[in-house]
């Protein structure tokens, strides 16, 4: 049972506002902590190693997205399915999800980590590394890839911990990773003088601590859903469903990887003599925007078990209310991001670097990139809504609209006429159009689902 006898079954009875506080607040706290760590880690690297190290770190972003992609393929799919099964009162199948996620995380980490290590230099060069930045990028990514088995299991099981009724414990695991990172990163970088590799080792150590935490949770028989030897550890039907639902965030991460390649290439091609610093400016902007995006992801992570459970239990009115509240919260968060970044671009940049040229390039990027940023929160919530109710094709479509259908064509055309400013304009323009597509899609689908659920009786728990 969950702490205090509060099991996941209350997802169908408690008020939506109470549930969002119960599930989203811990997820938001964890997301903010992770985002702050990423920002502080970049600050340590920028201040302790130099501006070229920031550029080298930016080159690793697409590869890091791929690392995340092969993990979220399993983690999000498993979390969504387990919530739906619990809503259907099928605890045995939810346990199958946990067992299968553990196995798949280990398989994916070994395959992906091993292949990437073999071809690391060619991959980094393809992503835009230059002779000035490749050493930093290689040094950082090699250590991160060594730790993929630990990070995959930690991320996969942490998603399941939240989905099966333990949002606070999931928050603790994320905070534990961040706390270890924040202690070790400055020690490794400034005291031991390990440079950018010190930041990477600190990350792996932090994830190892959280890996132990989540593993102990799922090995305990006191947990509502936990490892069971008698349940299946490799169930083809479960695996197919995990992949089908996890395909949306997987493709989103892959698309993000492709997009960052185009962004880096455009900045290198049109950045002139400051091309490496333009990539570094994007690294600063990317870290900053991800801070607010991760807060919205915290909201959607809290929404996911509520949506999945009530959708599985045929409680459609509760599903709609969760969606509407989530959209307004998401917009509020990204509006704050818009206001802060438009008002204080130089102050943000100077946290990462003392280089005035890099600060100037980043200032222009902040001012253009964040013009339509308030609508990003709604687009993220809507996309994750379809993922959470087991409709991956719609979620995939919405993820592709921004990153492939709009952003890449903009990146091909606009920089030719407006240079680096065209790169920033491409990103903000695609945000607006993707929001419009998401809004129209959710309005149409809610109307269709209203008809579908009209004659269905809720499944009582």
Task: Give a verbal description of the structure.
The structure is a single chain. By secondary structure, this protein is mainly alpha-helical. It has helices spanning 16-48, 51-59, 61-87, 91-118, 120-126, 134-146, 148-163, 167-191, 196-219, 236-270, 275-312, 316-343, 345-352, 356-369, 376-388, 392-418, 420-453. α2 (51-59) packs across α11 and α3 runs parallel beside α11 (275-312). The longest helix is centred in the middle third of the chain and has 38 residues, at 275-312. The two termini are 15 Å apart. The model is unreliable at 1-5 (pLDDT under 50). It is a multi-pass membrane protein.
N to C succession of SSEs: HHHHHHHHHHHHHHHHH
- What does the main sheet amount to? none
Number of domains: 1
Instruction: Please state roughly what percent of the residues sit in beta strands, choosing from under 5%, 5-15%, 15-25%, 25-35%, 35-45% or over 45%.
Output: under 5%
Query: Which outline best applies?
Result: globular
Beta strands, count? 0
Radius of gyration: 21 Å
**Main structural class:** mainly alpha
> Helicity level, as a percent range?
over 70%
Q: End-to-end distance, in Å?
A: 15 Å
Residue-averaged pLDDT: 85
Unreliable residue runs:
1-5
DSSP summary: helix tally? 17
GO cellular component, one term: plasma membrane
GO molecular function, one term: xenobiotic transmembrane transporter activity
Keywords: Antibiotic resistance, Cell membrane, Membrane, Transmembrane, Transmembrane helix, Transport
GO biological process, one term: response to antibiotic
């Amino acid at each position: 049972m969950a702490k205090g006898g509060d099991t996941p079954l209350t997802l169908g009875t408690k008020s939506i506002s109470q549930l969002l506080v119960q599930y989203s607040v811990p997820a938001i706290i964890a997301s903010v902590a992770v985002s702050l760590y990423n920002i502080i880690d970049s600050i340590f690297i920028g201040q302790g190693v130099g501006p070229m190290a920031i550029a080298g770190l930016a080159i690793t972003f697409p590869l890091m997205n791929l690392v995340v992609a092969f993990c979220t393929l399993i983690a999000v799919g498993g979390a969504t399915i387990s919530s739906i099964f619990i809503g259907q009162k099928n605890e045995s199948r939810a346990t199958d999800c946990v067992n299968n996620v553990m196995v798949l995380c280990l398989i994916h980490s070994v395959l992906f980590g091993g292949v990437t290590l073999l071809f690391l230099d060619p991959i980094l060069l393809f992503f835009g590394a230059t002779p000035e930045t490749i050493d930093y990028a290689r040094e950082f990514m090699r250590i991160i890839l060594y730790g993929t088995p630990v990070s995959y299991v930690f991320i996969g099981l942490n998603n399941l911990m939240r989905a099966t009724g333990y949002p606070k414990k999931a928050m603790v695991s994320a905070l534990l990773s961040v706390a270890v990172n924040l202690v070790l990163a400055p020690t490794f970088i400034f005291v031991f003088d390990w440079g950018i590799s010190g930041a990477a080792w600190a990350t792996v150590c932090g994830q190892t601590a959280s890996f132990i935490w989540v593993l102990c949770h799922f090995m305990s028989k006191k947990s509502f859903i936990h490892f069971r030897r008698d349940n299946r550890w490799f169930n083809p039907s479960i695996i197919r469903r995990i992949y089908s639902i996890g395909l949306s965030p997987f493709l989103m991460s892959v698309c993000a990887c492709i997009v960052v390649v185009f962004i880096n290439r455009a900045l290198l091609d049109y950045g002139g003599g400051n091309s490496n610093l333009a990539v570094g400016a994007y690294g600063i902007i990317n870290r900053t925007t991800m801070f607010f995006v991760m807060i919205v992801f915290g909201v959607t992570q809290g929404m996911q078990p509520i949506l999945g459970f009530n959708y599985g239990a045929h409680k459609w009115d509760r599903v709609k209310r969760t969606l509407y509240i989530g959209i307004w919260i998401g917009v509020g968060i990204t509006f704050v991001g818009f206001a802060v970044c438009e008002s204080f671009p130089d102050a943000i940049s100077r946290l990462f670097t003392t280089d005035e040229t890099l600060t100037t390039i980043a200032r222009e990027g902040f001012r253009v990139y964040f013009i339509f940023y308030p609508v990003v929160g709604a687009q993220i919530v809507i996309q994750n809504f379809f993922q959470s109710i087991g409709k991956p094709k719609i979620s995939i479509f919405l993820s592709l609209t921004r990153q492939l259908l709009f952003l890449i064509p903009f990146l091909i055309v606009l920089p030719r006429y407006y240079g680096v400013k065209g790169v920033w304009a491409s990103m903000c323009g695609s945000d607006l159009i993707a929001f419009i597509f998401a809004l129209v899609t959710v309005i149409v689908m809610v109307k269709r689902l209203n008809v579908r659920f009209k004659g269905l009786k809720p499944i009582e728990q």
